[in-house]
Known about the structure:
The structure is a homodimer.
Chain A: H1 19-45, H2 48-55, H3 59-66, H4 69-86, H5 97-114, H6 116-127, H7 134-157, H8 166-182, H9 184-191, H10 198-215
Chain B binds a DNA duplex through α1 and α3.
Amino acid sequence: MEVPRTTQNEAETPPRGSRAWQRRQRVAHILAAAEAVFAETGFEGASMSALAAASGLPKANLHYYFGTKEALYTALLDSILDLWLSATDSIRPENDPAEALAAYVRAKMHWSRTRPFASKVFANEVLHGAPYLGSYLAGELRSLVREKSRVLEGWIAAGRMEPVDPPHLFFAIWAMTQTYADFEAQIRAVLDRPELTAQDHAQGTETVLRLVLKGCGLRFKAAASMGASMGE
Amino acid sequence: MEVPRTTQNEAETPPRGSRAWQRRQRVAHILAAAEAVFAETGFEGASMSALAAASGLPKANLHYYFGTKEALYTALLDSILDLWLSATDSIRPENDPAEALAAYVRAKMHWSRTRPFASKVFANEVLHGAPYLGSYLAGELRSLVREKSRVLEGWIAAGRMEPVDPPHLFFAIWAMTQTYADFEAQIRAVLDRPELTAQDHAQGTETVLRLVLKGCGLRFKAAASMGASMGE
DNA sequence: AACAAGATTGACCGATTGGTCAGCTTTCTC
DNA sequence: GAGAAAGCTGACCAATCGGTCAATCTTGTT
Lengths: 232, 232
């Protein structure tokens, strides 16, 4: 069930217009279309014909590029994982705790707004027991959390923030930020919006920042109020 | 696509051992088995034969009781919804904000621990755009949030808590608490556990309480530390 | 005891699923 | 420009899908 992570994304780009370059273009195009389909219907709910229709290609063409539906799915997961790991750069011992955590929350919220489908595909995978991502979660992600937790513990020991359990703080941040992508249907319904606005996301970011920063005993400056998020 | 909510769950219980009583028993038994299957594989991923196998009944028997897979699914959703609405009782104007919010968080965390499958079924439904729950979200849930938001606004106006945007505070609480059910696979992997322990949940509850209460400018008393949640 | 209503289920159905493949076209290489 | 390699796709496949139904068994009523 577990999939070994490839490193294809780190290979250098082939010359523009070449055969290999065109292949990458098409693969990327298929993956982009598949992201939306998998996000909306899940792995089992996404049929190869639906994936083909979404990319505007015949079904047999998808099989030519990826072999199986599973391979297409894991290739997509692989391309999504980089996003997960990239946002923690700000959390380094020499940085200011408040600024570092704020930057992390903002990065996660930004990712929720700009790549909601990627977030949903990831969420769906984990929700169903992470059959393909299990080894990644127990490997790279666990290492990352361990490393960043040590940074937080350093700040706590130095009295620069209050003693919050670092892994659980990460779980809370992930949950609060990604909920704006994963559970967007619920948030939209409650706020009575056809779709979430930039202001909704700003209000969300502000609220998450408030909880995280004050929860860690750090300074938090409220932005100028834009009014209540629900009418009447 | 939308499903009208039934009120079957409010009818009185028929005499024990009677025909109607036995029918309810079987329906409840099927729903309990279906909850696990739908939670683990989603609506599309759960086949009628898998649902039949999980309940130990022939497939045709499920169709006898529920007619279609969709009807079985919506009946399950309906039984889950009551849980969602029941935990907000503590949020009333005359209560203490800190105690009320803490009780709410604790209730949600408790539900995540004891009914993880129900949480996952709900999460899966919303994740895929809430095709069956849309009307409920825009109806009962929106009304509930409006009502409870007014309570929080009252507390804010009275200076009993800081000005947190009430709907977004609810989104944050829902996300942080249900993540222990919905994304349990991820949390388990990061914490390196075969399964989440009571202590993990206690640590999680403590962290969520800290963020919510301090985020609202309310008093928070840390429980005695039980040690770091990650080894090393 | 007789009958009706409810409960049960193996066998079957058309539709759709993921996947294959032969045969065609396009592009690159020499 | 000839041959090889890569790209492409309509037609097809076995397996599985959700759902149906006639036949049988069980239970409650009289």
